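User: tokens in, sequence out, please.
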């Protein structure tokens, strides 16, 4: 039996990068997957290339869009067993140079988006009275301060925290809530960073990683699969780091 047989999973930010990889891995383990994003063309293409996946537009900042998408998925599939709050943006900028508008945009997508997803999907999960799993994608920046990423770091700490609070509230309903903390992962988000584009800087960056390489989306997807499946049925409220050993 596959690890997600019969399960329905909703993944935000699933048009590309880690979210798309999780979609591919989940369906290969028996799940039906709904990928959502604001990149509609890329999302349709990604979902179209995966058996048992579909795509829907969802800007995670919008409560009405969350309600519409969750309603549609419930009408079509009758259940949502797994939610992966994966959508996110980075902002590489000194705190003193960050405008209020930039700060609020990062908060709206990374933090408010995660809150809205948990809130909207949990109502469907609670009434379903079955084991469910919510996985919130934080970052190593949700466990330690990262210079020149103050806004991003703040939102990722918030994701770490809301995960722990929700786990305490919803354990009684069989809803597990955990966070995943990727390190340096090679995706469209990081493709323009010098640690990925400049071979010399990349070698230096990789030397700071005990396992000696940058991470790939599949490294994160494997952890997310574990947390989505019943193999992690006694884990909730926890922060799972996948960073090649950077964290102490
Ligand atoms: P990515 O940029 O490839 O994927 C992020 C996705 O989120 C994109 O498809 C993007 O369109 C989508 N998105 C952005 N704004 C959105 C919105 N308002 N509504 C819905 N979707 C939106 O990057 P990734 O590396 O795959 O990132 C996935 C998650 O992993 C993010 O939460 C990111 O913060 C986190 N993360 C990434 C790294 C890394 O090194 N790549 C490290 C730590 C954490």
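Assistant: Sequence out:
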């Amino acid at each position: 039996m596959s690890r997600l047989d019969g399960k329905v999973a909703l993944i935000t930010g699933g048009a590309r990068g880690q979210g798309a990889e999780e979609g591919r891995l989940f369906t290969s383990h028996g799940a039906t997957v709904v990928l959502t994003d604001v990149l509609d063309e890329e999302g349709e293409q990604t979902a179209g290339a995966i058996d048992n996946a579909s795509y829907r537009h969802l800007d995670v900042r919008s409560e009405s869009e969350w309600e519409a998408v969750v309603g549609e998925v419930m009408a079509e599939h009758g259940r949502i067993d797994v939610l992966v709050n994966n959508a996110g943006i980075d902002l590489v900028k000194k705190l003193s140079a960050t405008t209020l508008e930039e700060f609020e945009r990062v908060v709206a997508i990374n933090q408010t988006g995660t809150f809205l997803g948990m809130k909207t999907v949990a109502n469907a999960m609670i009434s379903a009275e079955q084991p469910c799993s919510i996985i919130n994608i934080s970052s190593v920046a949700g466990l330690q301060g990262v210079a020149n990423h103050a806004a991003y770091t703040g939102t990722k700490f918030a994701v770490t925290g809301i995960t722990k609070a929700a786990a305490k509230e919803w354990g009684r309903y069989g809803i597990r809530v955990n966070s995943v903390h990727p390190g340096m992962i090679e995706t469209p988000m990081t493709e323009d960073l010098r640690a990925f584009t400049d071979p010399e800087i990349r070698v230096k960056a990789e030397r700071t990683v005990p396992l000696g390489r940058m991470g790939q989306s599949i490294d994160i997807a494997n952890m997310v699969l574990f947390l989505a499946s019943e193999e992690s049925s006694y884990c909730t409220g926890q922060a799972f780091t996948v960073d090649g050993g950077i964290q102490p």
